Amino acid sequence: MIIKNSELLEDINYNLKLTKWILKPLGVWSFVTRDSNLTSKLSSVLIIFVNSFIMFITVMPCGIHMIFRETDQVVKIILMGPFGFYLTNCCKYYFIMYRSNIIKNCLNHLKADWARVKTEEDRQKMIKSVNVGRNITKLCAIFMFSGGVSYHTVMPIWKGSTLNELNETIRPLAYPGNEIFFNCQKTPIYEFIFFLHFICGLVLLTITTGACHLAAIFATHACGQVDILKSQLENLLKKENPKTNDTIDNRIASIIQSHVRILDFSKSIEIMLREVCLVEVGASTMIICLLEYYCMIEWSNSETINILTYLMLLTALTFNIFIFCYIGEILNQQCSSIGESTYMINWYKMPGNKGKYLMLTIASSRNQRQLTAGGMLDLSLHSFGNIIKTSLVYLNMLRTV
């Protein structure tokens, strides 16, 4: 069944709907789409500036307070978690913008793949891949925003007001340190700072979700293309139809072209996410360790809300790094399986010596195609296990503090 142009546009819009929703509030969307104009790019620059300004004025006082003012080592460790989360997300934010041209190329590649679809069966395979990517994004967003919103709103409210040594009422905030510059306890200054912390939290959580979404949506698309390629291999030796140019030569040409496109796309995904994955691995190792430590502290203090919040954040960050490692594993397995699928067809029944044209497909499939952390560490399920074990080692070190 031939797909109509209206269905093509609908499918592309469905595929990129979440991408647009996530990248637009970050000001990135205008730089990765061909449909943007000068006005939209200027507004995106303004959004990026506002987001950066909000993150800076919100969390930097926390860093100053942690480094120069706080003397309690346990409190310093407690502040290292949110401050580290801020720094890593800032890095991811600017790395995503740095790789905006590659993201744009990947989006154009994705759209071109949709335009190449000619059968309803292939279309359904691509839609299935899109749904997997969307579901991964939704799970990441649910985990991240549940814990993050609770940290920025529920925890400070639940903690309640306290009295300092001057018998002044101190209302808690998600990030301390604003009192260095002005009295943040007065109304409406306190309410404004509280709201600013909440907005900053939303920006940080959106960055985390956006990085996970880009990895999920592109990797699942590549896997969908592999499934379509395998289907083409299975149909390679079916009866020819010269009237429609459906010959073995044309089928082989289509298979080789599709395989090259998959390899190029996989390489682009790895380059696009190289720095993001490096930051993700390093940050997850430390922040997961800190969250485990926070859970132990709050358990000893019997703070139920704090325990639940930290557990949600721990689940979210563990799920996040697991997704990156799982995507790297699946991407490698799927690309490698092309060679096996090519070898398993009845290539020896092909007329003449046409089977030799598939030898390069088998050979090139032996090269690994997976996500890497800065080109130094291959992301796989084995890597995920090592990250968790390393965080537990650091946890044992923290327990001695």
What's the topology here?
Layout: H1 5-23, H2 29-32, H3 38-69, H4 73-98, H5 100-116, H6 120-159, E1 162-163, E2 169-170, H7 189-234, H8 248-301, H9 304-344, H10 359-364, E3 372-373, E4 377-378, H11 381-399
Antiparallel strand pairs: 1-2, 3-4
Helix pairs in contact: 1-6, 1-7, 3-4, 3-7, 4-7, 4-8, 5-8, 6-7, 6-9, 7-8, 7-9, 8-9, 8-11, 9-11
Protein name: Olfactory receptor 8
Subcellular location: Cell membrane
Pfam families: 7tm_6
Features:
401 residues, mainly alpha, two-stranded antiparallel sheet, 11 helices
Low-confidence stretches: none
Structural class: mainly alpha
**What would the average pLDDT be, to the nearest integer?**
85
What percentage of residues falls in helices of 4 or more residues?
A: over 70%
Order of helices and strands: HHHHHHEEHHHHEEH
Strand order of the largest sheet: 1-2
Keywords: Cell membrane, Membrane, Olfaction, Receptor, Sensory transduction, Transducer, Transmembrane, Transmembrane helix
InterPro entries: 7tm6_olfct_rcpt
GO cellular component, one term: plasma membrane
Membrane topology: Multi-pass membrane protein
